[in-house]
Each structure stands twice: as structure tokens, then as C-alpha cells.
Design a protein that fits this description.
This protein has 180 residues and is mainly β. It contains no helices and 16 strands.
Amino acid sequence: MSRVTSGNNGITQKYNKLTHKGVDIGWHSKEADNKVIAHSDGIVEKLVKTYNKTDKTGSSYGNYVLIKHNEKYKTRYAHLKYGSVCVSKGEKVKKGQVIGIIGATGHCIGRHLHFEVHKNGTRIDPTPYIKTDLPLWEIGKTYTSLKGKYVRKSPQVATNKVKYKNVTINKDEYCSDKSG
């Protein structure tokens, strides 16, 4: 099941780090499968919802929503149908919440969703995240949280070894990373 649409819409254009810094996901003939949903919990950082045309030139995203998930990761959902964006700037969204409908606004050929993942301000290949979570663990980092209630052991991820340290977490939510 897709983490960004209500259906199993396929990829119509792949990520290319030089020319296409996202993936395009095609629309589905069943309109109910064209809802665009928030990949993960976050806060709407930017959006455009009044763009009402398809451009033949330029680089416009048309109607889009940019969601900040944490200090490292953001996701963008572009070319949304005019009048379909149903969130507001600053709004907290939940994983799976409908944010719009696949459309054809901005610079695009045909109806589709342009999906991006940003890591530390750089657009990375979003393909692995269409069906999975954004990464919680990264090699060589020790994770801890300052807003928790419970103390658990949490792994320090090394190349192929896991070392454990005490960390504070808020139930099962791993909040931030600290070296050392």
C-alpha cells in the first residue's frame, strides 16, 4: 500500500539526481484512489492552493504541500488538483491524513503526483519511502530524546553492530539524535 496516495498508483517517472528530483506517481481510473495523503506526522510548512492552470513551460509545482516531519526530513506533494488542497500552513497533520487530490497544475504533462523527500535541505530519492517510514536510525549515530517519560535501551547504530545506551523516549517515539 502506498504511503502517499489512497490507492496503489504506480510510478510513471523515476528520480534522477540531475534532472528529476522526485518521483511522479500516476493517477488511477478510480477517483477514490487519487487522494494524496500525508506520508508521516508533521507540520505543513508551505503550500500553494490557488493555482488553476497547467503550464507548458517553466518549473512550477502548481498546487503543492510541503510537510516538515522533523529537523531532517520534509516531503512535498505537487501538481495537486485546483481546489483540492485541504490543509493550511502551520497545521499539524497525521500520517494518512488526506491533504489533496492528484491533479495537473503547474508545469506537467498529464495528471500525476510529484512526490519529493528532502533530507537536510537536499532532495533525495523518495522511491524507498513510497511504502515505508522515513529512517529512524542512521549509521554511526546515538539516539536520545529530551521529552520522554520512560527509560529504555536504544541502539547506537554502527556499520553492522548494535551498541546499547540508556536513552529517554516518549513511549515508542524516537525524537532526536545526539552524538556521544
